[in-house]
Amino acid sequence: MRFASTVEVVNRAGLAVAIAVLAVVLVLAITVAVRAGAPAPQTNKAPPVTTPASPAFSPTTPSPTPTGPALLLPNLRSLRASDLSVEVLNGQRRLRFTASLANLGPGPLLLRPRGRSSCPAGQHSAVQVLYADTNADKVFSRARDRESERRAVGCRLHHPGHKHWHFDAMAAYSLRRPGSADALVSRDKVSFCLRDNRRITGQRAVVRRAHFGRCSRTSHQGISPGWIDVYTAKLSGQWLRLPGGSGPQLLCLDLAADPLRRIAETNETDNATSVAIRVSGTAVRRVDSGLCR
Predict the structure, then answer these.
(1) What's this model's pTM, rounded to 2 decimal places?
(2) CB of 147 within 8 A of CB of 131?
(3) Angle, vertex CA 265, rays to CA 169 and CA 211, nearest 5
(4) Are the beta carbons of 102 and 76 closer than 8 angstroms?
(5) Range of the domain at 103
């Protein structure tokens, strides 16, 4: 057996070290060249798409915490039309009906007049007043709860037929065929003087006595929690023109509160209601309202 001499071992070790050093130097040289702008190897794969993190939110950003007492907001809802009748005037048939706006929210709907602002000549701004639940009991009390915010919501105008002041876009009325979303006849901005006319049946009124009732140029208007503003069928403007036709007609009468969604509410999805009616000549009667869903 032949054993390697000490010189041979040293020479072999030195050669191995030299090869290792040369490999490291080569890797460093390639890295520097790439960083200096040398072209990267071509591949058929598309570069990965990265989406930068949003500066407004990251998983470590805590959600904002509400400060101060909650607001006691109204919740407006149009009740189903009632007192239906058909009148004929100058050869035109009109559907008359009673419309009612209910406030089912914990807070009052309160609109105050303000200066002219951007409203048309002869009108002035309406400002909604929002109350804070000062004692956190979720029940409105004028003695305890305080005004928190005011926001412009539209215009107030003088109604020549009613001879008092209205808020300009409190309701919308329309007629359509069952199964269709297209209105045959509509009035998209029905003005109201907002008042407490009667309590909501089957619900305890938070405000026991009617609070709103005046409709002057300077009066505060609104609907208290648990109360209804009623516009009877005999009032000026409480009608829709019936579409032409000689035979019986099946129609949907749609009513919506706050159609332009100007009023701050607890729920914006329950403002509208529909009733199915059958009209024949000057006779009208209610039918299954499921036809108008």
Answers:
(1) 0.73
(2) yes
(3) 75
(4) yes
(5) 73-292
